[in-house]
Amino acid sequence: MDSNIQMIPPQDKLEFWDKEYESSKNSRLSKTKTTDTIENDQTQPKLDLLYSSGKVNKLDSEVLDNELTSLLEEPLYSSFSYINPKFVDKWKTELQSGLQGLLLFLSFSSGKNATYGQKMQNLTYKTDSGSTKRRLYLYSVALVASNYGWQKLTFYLSDKRWADMPMNTMKYRVWRTVHLLEKVFRALTLANFILFISNGKYKTILERVFGLKLTFSKPQFFQSVSFEFMNRQMVWHAFTEFLMFIIPLLNTTRIKSHLTRSIRQAVGLPPVYIDPEISSLRNGLCPICYTEEMDKAKETGIILDEFKIATRCRITNGYKANCGHEYCYVCIKKKMSREGTSCSCLRCGNVINGITSI
């Protein structure tokens, strides 16, 4: 190359170097374009994977938003119920729509293109083209307006009983059209959900209409979302349901009686505590009736005299226990059935295994 440069006349050296510079520049540009094309080809599958991944996170975000709305509805209704008890029943649909619109506006106006539930799941809305913020506001208006309008329309048709009108009237045709539209919308919702399960892009029909795709706001952390809290909540929920199912089947009175009897026998005490007042009752009075009457008297503040005690606590259809003390048949049978096949005598503390008629 040096020999070629020496052969070039001095006036043509500047032109020679300009041509060399342009040639090398064009070569670098062509390499850069090739590299960008390769990177774009490699990036597109990653973006598609990012859109399609996280289906569970997207569904969970919707559940979280619904739970947040439900939590805020209760204090909102309570605050208005103090002003006028019938206000909530009359304007419940308007309050729900207003609360939903307020939550969407506050979420999207805070600088992030996501609702509160979506932020917790590391999600955000993105569009392929155009202004995302503008589409989000239009999406919010369409969502709130469609829900409100549909609820008011169906309530009006149901309240006016348009479905019971003659089939040749306009009102019945309107109701039939609305009913058909509802079926079509449900079919479209099902089809959209199947597509969402397939590609994970559009969770609802409105998101598909406005071209809003939920993606991870921080893609490098899209696999680090922890479900530990949710799993723990599910375990506690299942455990609580199990307890609610099993507790009514347990005889708590029998369990308490057996535990008390076992503990007192272990420490050398009688099976039950013997009240001196009950043990000294005269014959002909039922200890169980006496205990119940005294409990009622303490609750109501009534003082029982000897005559009332003798009248209300007299043994009816008396039966004698194996320990020798007498009870009303109904009273002793109830006590034995509550505590199991046997119970403790209130007079002496011995175990009653059987009773005989007097």
UniProtKB/TrEMBL annotation:
GO CC annotations, alphabetized: peroxisomal membrane
PANTHER family: PEROXISOME BIOGENESIS FACTOR 2 (PTHR48178:SF1)
Listed PROSITE patterns: ZF_RING_1 (PS00518)
Lineage summary: Eukaryota, Fungi, Fungi incertae sedis, Zoopagomycota, Kickxellomycotina
Name the UniProt record assigns to this protein: RING-type E3 ubiquitin transferase (cysteine targeting)
Enzyme class label: transferase
A Gene Ontology BP annotation from the UniProt entry: protein import into peroxisome matrix, receptor recycling
GO terms of molecular function: ubiquitin protein ligase activity; zinc ion binding
Enzymatic reactions: [E2 ubiquitin-conjugating enzyme]-S-ubiquitinyl-L-cysteine + [acceptor protein]-L-cysteine = [E2 ubiquitin-conjugating enzyme]-L-cysteine + [acceptor protein]-S-ubiquitinyl-L-cysteine
Organism: Furculomyces boomerangus
Family designation: Belongs to the pex2/pex10/pex12 family.
Superkingdom field: Eukaryota
Catalytic activity, EC: 2.3.2.36
Subcellular location per the Swiss-Prot or TrEMBL entry: Peroxisome membrane
Entry keywords, A to Z: Membrane, Metal-binding, Peroxisome, Protein transport, Transferase, Transmembrane, Transmembrane helix, Transport, Ubl conjugation pathway, Zinc, Zinc-finger
Domain Pex N-terminal, first and last residues per copy: 65-263
InterPro entries: PEX2/10, Pex_N, Znf_RING_CS
